Amino acid sequence: MNCFNFYNSMNRRSMLARSAAGFAQVGLAAMAGQAALQAGAASMNTVDRLPHFAASAKRVIFLFMWGGPSHVDLFDYKPRLNDFAGKAVTPEAFGGRQPPGGTILGSPFKYQQHGQSGVWISELFPNVAKHADRMCVIRSMHTDGSAHGEALLNLHTGNSNLVRPSVGAWVSYGLGGESENLPGFVTISPPRGHGGVQNYGSAFLPAVHQGTAIGSAETPIANARMANISNPKIDRSAQREQLDLIQALNQQHLRKSVADQGIEGLIASYELAYRMQSTVPQILSLADESPETLKLYGVDAQPTDNFARQCLLARKFAEKGVRYIQVSTDYTWDHHTRNNEGLVKECAQVDKPIAGLLTDLQQRGMLEDTLVVWGSEFGRTPTVENGDGRNHHPAAFTMWMAGGGVKGGLTYGSTDDFGFHPVENPMHMHDFHATLLYALGLDHKRLTFRHAGRDFRLTDIFGNVATELFEHRA
Amino acid sequence: MYSRTIFIFLVVSMDSIASAQENAASEKPEADGIAWFETHIRPLLVQRCYACHSLKAGKQEGGLLLDSPDAWTRGGDRGAAVVAGDPDASLLIRAVHYNDPDLLMPPTERLNDEDIAKFDAWVRMGAPAPATADANVIENPSDPIAGKSHWAFLRLTRPMVPAVQNQEWARSDIDRFVLAKLEAENLHPVADAAAIELVRRTSFQLVGLPPTETQIQQFQELPIPQAMERLVDELLASPQFGQRWGRHWLDLARYADSNGLDENFLFREAWRYRNWVIDAVNADLPFDRFLMEQLAGDLLPYETLDQRDRQRIAAGFLVVGPKVLLGVNPDRQRMDVADEQLESISRAVLAQTVGCARCHDHKFDPIPTADYYAMAGILTSTKVMEQRYMLGEQRVMERLAGLGEQGDQLNAAYETYWRERPGKNARMEKVKAVLEVLKQADETAIAAKLASDADGFAETAKDASQPKESRLAAQEALLKKLQDLLANPPQIPPRAMMPMDLETPVNETIRIAGKFDAPGETTQRGFLRVLYDDAITPLPDKQSGRIEFAQWLTDGSRRSGQLTARVQANRIWHHLLGRGLVRTVDNFGRTGETPSHPELLDYLASELIQDGWSFKKLIRRIVLSRTFALNSHYEPANSDKDPENIRLWRANRRRLDPESLRDSMLAAAGTLELAPMESTVAYLGDQATAVGSNPVRRKTDYNCRSVYLPVIRNDLPEIFEAFDFTNPHTTTGARPKTTVPTQGLFMLNDAMVMATAEITARRILSETASQPMETRIQRMFQLIVSDGANDNEQQAMLSYLQQTESRLQTAGDAEASLKALAMACHALFASSRFQYLE
């Protein structure tokens, strides 16, 4: 593909040197401009212009509910579930077709329509529901992988049996970061299991695009750090003196070597690392946030404190120019038993923080170009498991988006009367990825990278964009 | 104009004469003229004519192009090159016969008689060819017959060593190949590297460690060529050689201590395979044997138990790949596992992207889907998974086999114990309950219990005629026996990850669009047709065909083995010179790059085969060349013409890989232990990275060489993660080279780096007690960069040390000298001087 032709035509070492000096300008979009400057506009016919479309979003915040919450209890209202509670669905009730086996678990949760648009949301998300008119709820998601690991990898990388770049890495590769001092892709409290770092890795894309981890899922975010972001022994001024010595030695070496891009890159990367040591802790500290903001998210209150801090950090990273920010819950949504109790507990931890994030972004004028995504690796069965639980259900589930140019108050797609299968506008995970890239102005078919003799893309050979999710775009 | 000297290459294919005759006899030219053209004529055109007569080369000598029927019919300045059906009227025929002194083609060397006969026959047939024979326009890229003309699939040539103008410069034939190209482009090799640069470079490239002080001293006692010979022989013979070069193979073998992907279970036994690789490389096991044991070690005969076990361990190559373990259809898993193995083998050995042909014929390379499934059949006829009981349930896991005399029995007993343990546990609960009932001595209740839970009773306890005490004693004894059994699981026996053949091998069906449940036509097990020289020999009925696969891959008399030799020689060059002659080391297909020095590549590959596939001999040849010994200095005139140093006018400056980076810091501190390690993951649970809190994580605080550190997929040691270690999920011939700020953060702030710097400082202080600061600085540079500090470096260090020491003293620090020196050592570790090889 064209992207690679262009990539190859550049002096790769100067590109490396640049990525060492700062995170901005490493995406294809920025580099395409530079290549044009270097090579003259004539060469642009071999270069894909980026972004490929007018973008409605500049960045993404992905709120990942690890474990797979039940769609039928939260966003996909199925009143008939209670008619069949404790019984198998009959073929008559299933449009004459053979329904999947098993006994239905009813849902005790009350649904209500919210906002002017009337989006159905269960009582477990009272605060999120206040944003109904900003939300675009996709009820027809489906994916591959009935075990967590496989489904997590599909969600994050579009593939489970081969190592592929994460969605965030693709976005960083396509657009670069907006900040010199911060990476393009940050993941807050990522899972260690079920693929672990592979879920935010860059695979064959340049390493600068891999997700920078802040903490990990099982650690309270208040204790989380970015690896090696501060020195346990040497204070700031002493470290500057030490760094001056390092750079003096490097400059010596560089002078002797005349023009060595590798050494130049090394010198630049140390300066950037040093600057990150002040920018990153500033973001991780919530000291400058007003009491109103802290309260809005539910910081310092239980049970919301942990997820509230994560969401607030996501806003801070977004504000500073990070392109793709993922926030993950711990592995808490896997309700094989006591589904209802579990949902009450988990929703209470995330509802207010998520609503707070949407409000905060709105108030700061950031929601219009920040795509907020809520979702999980799969949904859960309408049928019962272990008496009061639900099993994994990749065949149908719900994700929702808000901001970033999506139509608010839209309910997209539907499932059958029980939530077993998509009926209307099914959206496979590949379609979802294609649509997410579209919001950012990236064509999933043209965002490619040449590796091992072929061009790879996030959606492999699949993916359809659901353009109808977006407000009119020029 | 071409310099006459470079293009003299004599084709002496090893058995081309015999095979051409066989082929000519076995195929009927008239049956498929185009196929005949593709097999016999196009390779000759590509190899012998296109350099001067093709659009691709951009050369049209004598106005003649030979890359399409139109072009050769039209001909050049002298007229039609080919007149179909009329050899006498065809100038091409006249030229290749070398009868007309004004028309001798190819100009460098007459074709052999067989090839001339092929041209005659072809023209007589009517010169059949596809409408566009142009090598650039490939009508059916996956056609394995047409694909034979791709450069990588051609027979090895034995190129004549070119003549060079500067006779003094070259130390070996390798140098003459390099110099001829330099001279042709008016490039000039830079001066030789300084002795100290060369000894450091050589030591890192061969053993991954800085040179010892003795080595440096001895090196300086002799003239460079002799000093190099002594050093290189010493390094090749040292056990540290395998610790570095074994790691190069482990990158290709996607070696890891855990599964990765969806469920990151520990590979508790993988270390044995790692150590087998290191030992095999140290022993210079010939590459054909090295590969045979890894692909088929479990099938090979053996004379001793020890040999059997080594071969079993070697075959772990097939088992150590990552696999999706949960929630996957067993048939799909079987195809996925075979795919992973096939992709790894074909990429590592042949530099081919065979995996692309799983769902459709290869889009670029001559690999039809049928060939993919022909090879996949070999691997699906091989079992690498088995049912085992782990973490509370029966699972499909990697296959293990026992080692040692009692190995198989111990392994079976161990697996049986865990399989039966849940049943034993349930029985123990029953035994406990029965004991309580017996204590009550209520015969009705006992009888009821006996009726429901007879297996919860000791024999004597069942007998109502026995005294209560005896019954209780018997029951208690049974309980204790069960409790002991449960409390004392057998030790994990020594085991290897080992494949085995299915009882009946299967010929796979093509899967439509790669879907495991969409079978198409059946394909006989076999190999890549583009690399077949003669008729296909069916694989054995009773075995998977892995032995034959390995033989085919390394048969130096066939094009398959010759491609393997090219690929492996290129890998060796890549590691030693910093870049392959083919830069895309894992892709010799049409989308890969072509060799910068094709004659040199063929020369090296031929030497590799002739040396009995000895890696050490080839490494020695290359390292002793003058090309290897150049300095890395910038030279503007050369750089203007060849900025990327494709022609090798200087050495490539290279950054230390993470293993060398860590090992040489420990070496400076004097704490590095060179001894081999066994498992470094034995303390981990069955989940290498658990979901949720994970109190036992992989450790890195060993003083061993980095090759022995745990390679947990998705949880690599931090220094590996930061400094471009291989991704252990996939075959990697060339690690990425990045310069990113996480590396800077690591060097500035990592606790291990600082601790090592402090130990180094203590060492310096104790060795230079009461010596002036300048002496300490010189010692620091010797330990860390194997060289003295120059004046500027010395000055920068000195003022830093003075300033820092006095600041610390003022602050009342009792260890001011030590701490200042530790920070200085830390700074030198972080410097480019340490992290780069000249």
> Measured on Cα atoms, how large is the radius of gyration of chain A?
23 Å
Low-confidence parts of chain A: 1-17, 33-48
Give the name of the CATH architecture of chain A: 3-Layer(aba) Sandwich
Oligomer: heterodimer
The low-pLDDT segments of chain B are 1-31
Which structural category do the helix and sheet elements of chain B fall into? mainly alpha
Query: For the record, what CATH class of chain A applies?
Result: Alpha Beta
Beta-strand residue percentage of chain B? under 5%
Total helices of chain B: the number is 32
The CATH topology name of chain A reads Alkaline Phosphatase, subunit A
Largest sheet of chain A: 9 strands, mixed
The biggest beta sheet of chain B reads: 2 strands, antiparallel
Number of domains of chain A: 1
Layout of secondary structure:
The complex is a heterodimer of chains A (474) and B (838).
Chain A lengths: L1 H8 L2 H10 L6 H12 L19 E6 L6 H4 L5 H4 L27 E4 L4 E4 L12 E8 L5 H10 L9 H9 L9 E4 L23 E3 L21 H22 L3 H24 L6 H7 L7 H15 L4 E5 L10 H25 L6 E6 L3 E2 L11 E2 L3 E6 L7 E3 L1 E2 L6 E3 L2 E2 H11 L9 E3 L2 E3 L18
Helix pairs in contact in A: 2-9, 8-9, 11-12
Chain B lengths: L15 H11 L6 H17 L3 E2 L4 E2 L8 H6 L16 H7 L15 H12 L48 H12 L10 H13 L5 H7 L4 H14 L2 H13 L17 H13 L4 H10 L8 H10 L15 H21 L18 H12 L1 E2 L1 E6 L2 E6 L1 E3 L4 H34 L2 H10 L6 H4 L5 H20 L7 E3 L2 E2 L7 E3 L7 E4 L23 H8 L5 H19 L20 H13 L4 H9 L12 H6 L12 E2 L2 H12 L48 H5 L18 H9 L1 H17 L5 H13 L5 H20 L5 H15 L1 H4 E2 L1
Antiparallel strand pairs in B: 1-2, 3-8, 4-5, 6-7, 9-10, 11-12
Helix pairs in contact in B: 2-5, 7-9, 10-11, 12-13, 12-20, 14-15, 16-19, 21-22, 21-23, 25-28, 28-29, 28-31, 29-30, 30-31
